[in-house]
Each structure stands twice: as structure tokens, then as C-alpha cells.
Amino acid sequence: MEIVVCVKPVPDPETRLRASPDGSALDTEGVKFMLAGYDESAVEQALLLKESVPGSKVHAVSFGPAPRTEEVLRAAIALGCDQATWVEAPAGAPGDPMVAARALADVIGKLPHDLVLCGKQAGDEESGVVAAALGELLQIPDFGCVLSPRWDAAQNLLTFRRATESGEEAWVAPLPCVVGLQQAWNDPRTAKLPAILKSRKAPIAHASAAPEAGDHSVGERFELPPPRTGAKLIEFKTPEEAATKLVRYLREEAKVFP
Amino acid sequence: MSLRILVVGEAQNGRLAGSTLEAIGKARALAGPDGVVGFLAGPHPEALADFAQHGVATVWSASDPRLDEVPVGAISPFVMGVAESVHPDLILLGGTTFGRDMAGHLGARGHAPVATGVTEITRVEGGLRVRRPIFGGRATETRRLEGNRAVVALRPHAFPAPAPAPVSPEVRPVATGDIPPRWLAPKRTGVDAPSAGAGPGLADATIVVSGGRGVRTADNFHLVEELAASLGAAVGASRAVTDAGWRPPSLQVGQTGRTVSPQLYVAVGISGAIQHLVGMVSSRVIVAINSDASAPIFKVADVGVVGDLFQIVPALTREIRKTRGLA
After folding, report:
1. SS3 letters for B241-252?
2. What ipTM is given for this predicted complex?
3. Top-level class of domain A2-208
4. Which domains does chain B show, CATH number per domain?
5. For residue A102, what is the nearest residue in chain B, using CA coordinates?
6. Main-chain dihedrals φ then ψ at residue B159, nearest 5 degrees
């Protein structure tokens, strides 16, 4: 199975967020970017499928600026991806998920792709539309919110469940298709040191995004919420008193309760 | 000139989903009742009537029953076909899996800017301006969607459902004809209703009650579930709980689990590691119950109870049941 996994460098989840000097975007000065969250899980899922289907290959693809995009691809190679392609975003390109999707689709369309895997959403902008956009652009079925895809070799079908608002759906689908993963692994594999060292020299294919036509979305302001001032603590002598005061707060002050 | 908005609806159990009603309410506020038209896939006469019941007279109906069983990519061409007749400035969707996936398709197909998880929409020169929480609610961005057509999916519960405003319906059939075989090949083989006794799903619950390591054992977790049941809330869990196998990973709230933004989030025995906080910090009201007064959860909570959850939680469950007349 030829598996393509899409990844995006995102700020370390522990990053203290700041607005850029002009207030329009995240200040990326000094921010550590990494393979994290859903994308890390997407790589794990790609590797699990590769291991379960003999002869499979995993090709990691990422759209973004230098140097962080190349770095997450090296991290993906260190974890066990076989190949990587970096689609370079021009400096100052709008952080627009559809621009990313079109650039990724251009590259993936030229690669063998039985299965395209994406994380549910990137941990920064959380648009969650790239998998669907890839399905449209590649004209193959796509499925969001997918749990635990498995390859059924006897029937040549991918089987999986989807967690949607109406419950958990069971699906079977022939390849090719695009899968947006809902699930995140709590314990994705970590790269071993020899693999990390080797990944530093691994060849990474480079592509340039085609000039963009069409309309964009452009970030205008990046704001942090006013700092929460800490909880108002309820004083009580008995659990019953705590319960009564809490319910009164919820009804009368927070008004979240009939 | 007034806006023209196409609301792409979603049927749930034959009726229009609450998320679609939220979209209709926002669309009417932006464009006035005459500026809004609807689209619905699948044979759902009651859901079509729900559009009219909420002030949207004209609804394009692709009533082909196959459309209930196909991937979103099979439906997007029909929405675009309607858009070519209606010329909407904005295609608006509810904040569901379907809404988000369909937004991606329509943006890609129509070469239009897309925004999801949107909490505010305003009209500006040359397009629309939206606000949306990002980084798990730790920040908010304002984006300008350029051009003469944008696609927006709302954030769940960010907008109220509108009051009914009945108009007489005008249903316009959308012919679906042949659907290419590749869209019909995937099959949905079953649906399990949201997992047993779990109440509303985590993603769209208005109240979430989550338990953490402080609950100590799998057997004790029923305290969290009973509190949730008393509130009609969804049950969540911290990573400590799902890692330990006390409850399934699907309940995990946080960086590697679900992001939720309910009206009320109750954290029981959760210390509040950043991993967890990013998944719930955008909740409107946060209540924390924990024995450790120095737990970071109290920094983000609005109200806290420092105490023994094994005493506080049962007392709270009883008080809520009493208040709600559940005895």
C-alpha cells in the first residue's frame, strides 16, 4: 500500500503564545516548532498500517516555510517514514488552509497514493479542512473523524469507524481514499537515536508551490484572552454546604443551570 | 447591497440538526429572511419543513436517498450547482463533522476562502471578517475572507438557535442523476448510537463533566458519571484516566483527545496539566473540584471547591438532582 501522510510543523504545545509586533499573527520568534498532536498520531497510524500490509511505503508530505517544515519531515523519517517531500511555502504566504491543501494536492497527485492520511486538524489553526479539500481536489472519497483504520486484505477494503455527532459509524471503503483521523495516540513511538542521526542526511524531495490564483483568507489579528484570574474558591464546612453554594453559583451567577 | 447566504443543512434523525438551526439564525441576522436560501441532501421532508419553520422559504432539495449513505464528496457538486444558480456571497454550515468536511470540499471546488469554528461574522469592504478560537481556545484570530464568495462553518453552540418564524415553503428539487461509481463504492455498514448511556456526545455537549487521576480507580469513576447524568452532561476524562484504561480513549479531553467548549465544564480530580487545559480552556464556565489547592486547574477555573471529591461529588449530585426535581 502506498501511504501518503500529511504533516504540519506546529508550535510546541507548551509554548507561551504571544502576538507578533503588528498584532496580526502569532509571534514565531524563538518558538520551537515540532511534529505534534494529531499529526504525530497520523504518522503513527501510517506506520502501523505499513507494518500490517507487507510491501507498503509511507511518504510524508508537508507544506510550509523553511526551516521548520524540513525539520518535521526529518522527524517523520526518523520515526520510520520511507520518503518525504517538502512543498515550500513562500515567505509571507497567507496562513490559509486552502492554500496548503492545493499545494499538497498538487504534489500528492503526482505521487502514488492508495491512502492519504491526515491528522484531524493542526494544533495551531485548527481549521480541519485539509483532508476534505484533498478529497475534492484529488477526486477521491474522503472521511473525517476516523477511528482505527484497518486493512482487510481478503476483501481489499479499508475498514474503519467514524465518530460523528450521530454516533459511531462503521465503514468499508476501497482505495484510494483520504482519511482524516479523529484519534490521537497517547503513546506514539519515539525515534531512536541512530534513526534520528540517519534522518539528518536523508534526502528530502523539494517542490515549490504553484503561484496561487483565487481568493484567500488573511490573518488580521491574533489575540490572547484576558488572563483568567483564578478560581473563586467556595468556603464550606460540610460537603452539603459546598454543593448548595456551588449550585447557587451555577444558577444565579454563571446562569448555566435552570 | 444585501448579502445572499446559502445555508447547507444537515438532517439528524429526519429533522434539521441543531447546528443547522444555529446557522439559519446567524444567516437571517446577517442577510435578513429574504437573503437566505437552504440546501438539503437526502429525503427528509420534516427537515425541509424545519427550514420554513425558521424563516427560510426557498430550499433546494436533493432528495435522492443515496445521498444519506455517500461520502461528502458525492454531495458537494450538487451544492456547487445550486450556488451557481443562487450566487451566494456566503455558504454557511453548522459546526459538525459534516459541516467542516463540506466546507473543505466547497472551498476547494469553488476556489473560495474557508473558515471553520467561527464565532463571529461581519461584513467588510471586499469580503467578510470572521473571528475564531485557535490553539485550543488559548488564542483568537480575526481573519478576512477575501473575494465575492466565502465558505464558513460555525463553532458549535456559538450562536443561539433562532426563534421559529414560519413562512410557506418553496422546495426546489435538485436532480442528482448518475453519481460516479467511486462515490458509491464506500459503504456505511452500521451506526451505533452514541455509546451506551453516555448522554450527549462530547463534541457537541453544552455541559461536560470530566474525571481525572484524583478519582483513583476505574470503579470510582461512576461518581463522575452520576454527576454528569444529573446535569444531562457528556462524560469526559483526562489522559491519566484513559491511559490507565479506566475509560476508553474516546472520552479523552485535551491535546491528544477532544477539544470541547461547552457552556459549563466540571473538572473532577483533574490537576490541570497543559495537555488537558488546551482541550477545555475555552469553555464558558469552568468548575474545579480537587483536594490540592495548588493544582493548576484552579488557575483557569471560574469557581473551585478544594476538598475531597469522594464527599463533594456525591453531595453535589444529590443537590443537583433535588434542584432539577429528579429526586
Report:
1. HHHCCCCCHHHE
2. 0.90
3. alpha beta
4. 5-184 (3.40.50.620), 207-323 (3.40.50.1220)
5. B108
6. -125, 145
Distance from the B172 Cα atom to the nearest Cα atom in chain A, whole angstroms = 25
What local confidence, expressed as pLDDT, does residue B200 receive? Answer: 61
Choose among A245, A256, A231: nearest CA to B287.
A231
Instruction: List, for residues B177-187, the tens digit of each pLDDT value.
Output: 889 999 999 99
- Which residues does chain A have within 8 Å of residue B293's beta carbon, measured at their own beta carbons? 233
Best probe of the B interface among A26, A129, A220, by most B CBs < 10 A, is A129
Identity of the amino acid at B169: P
Per run of 10 residues, the mean pLDDT along chain A (length 258 residues) is 96 86 91 88 94 96 92 96 93 81 95 95 87 97 91 94 83 96 76 93 88 78 85 94 94 77
Q: Are B140 and A223 a contacting pair at CB < 8 A? A: yes
pLDDT of residue B196: 42
Contact predicate A178/A118, CB 8 Å: yes
Q: Contact B307/A174, CB-based, under 8 Å? A: no
- Name chain A contacts of B187, Cβ cutoff 8 Å: 171-173
Every domain range in chain A assigned CATH 3.40.50.620: 2-208
pLDDT of residue A186: 57
Q: Is residue B36 within 8 Å of B5, Cβ to Cβ?
A: yes
